[in-house]
Write a structure and sequence with these properties.
With 201 residues, the chain is α+β, with helices and mostly antiparallel strands. The protein has six helices and eight strands. It has a domain of 133 residues: 3-Layer(aba) Sandwich (Aminopeptidase). The protein has an eight-stranded mixed beta sheet with strand order 1-2-3-4-5-6-8-7, with helices on both faces. It is globular, with a radius of gyration of 18 Å.
Length: 201
């Protein structure tokens, strides 16, 4: 028979287990954030096949193939089912065209998540990354169930545009780190950023 202390410990452990995440859509003034679909494969391969983009991302190989994109599509579905990965394509509401992606990778405790994003080069410097990130921050901290309490992100020191996006959304630079780059098979100097959920009492 389980005693009270054991029961509380068991409940605490079970409550920290990530739950499946239902597919949802998020909207901003200009953007729709939605789950990845089969018809996003072509655009994803074309964009991430550009070394100028893939070298800035930790987990993207170069060259990036259709098989890689199909694997990632299935990985996003598995991640939702396990409650550990939440991935959104970034789509222009005006045209319905996908222009990039943003996602959350949750830790085992379910309280922290790493956020990452990319945009096709034709859509750089138009404020889309900041708009998408601000929406994901609001969702993660105040709308998601369960909520995330801390968001983390990394940006290469050679990528000041991404650093500006993180700072504009309230992330704080907490120190230097080295990021792996699968595309270049090396380690790259980077900055570690963090944003904590604050709740008024």
């Amino acid at each position: 028979m389980m005693n009270n202390a054991s029961a509380r410990a068991s409940f605490a452990m079970s409550s920290n287990v990530p739950k499946p995440i239902l597919p949802i859509e998020l909207q901003t003034d200009r953007l729709l954030l939605r789950p990845m679909r089969e018809d996003d494969i072509e655009m994803t391969v074309a964009s991430l096949g550009d070394l100028e983009i893939s070298r800035r991302l930790a987990r993207i190989p170069h060259p990036y193939t259709e098989a890689d994109a199909h694997w990632w599509l299935e990985e996003t579905r598995r991640g939702r089912a396990s409650g550990t990965v939440e991935h959104f394509m970034i789509e222009l509401r005006a045209s319905g065209a996908p222009i990039g992606a943003i996602g959350l990778h949750q830790d085992a405790a379910g309280e922290r998540a790493e956020v990452g994003y990319w945009l096709a080069k034709a859509h750089w410097n138009r404020g889309y990354a900041r708009e998408a990130l601000a929406m994901v921050v609001r969702y993660a901290f105040f709308e998601r169930v369960p909520v995330i309490t801390t968001l983390e992100a990394k940006a290469h020191e050679s990528n000041p545009a991404s650093i500006r996006v993180l700072e504009a959304c309230g992330f704080l630079d907490v120190g230097s780190v080295e990021c792996t780059s699968l595309a270049t098979s090396g380690n790259i100097p980077a900055r570690q950023f963090e944003l904590r959920r604050e709740v008024s009492t």
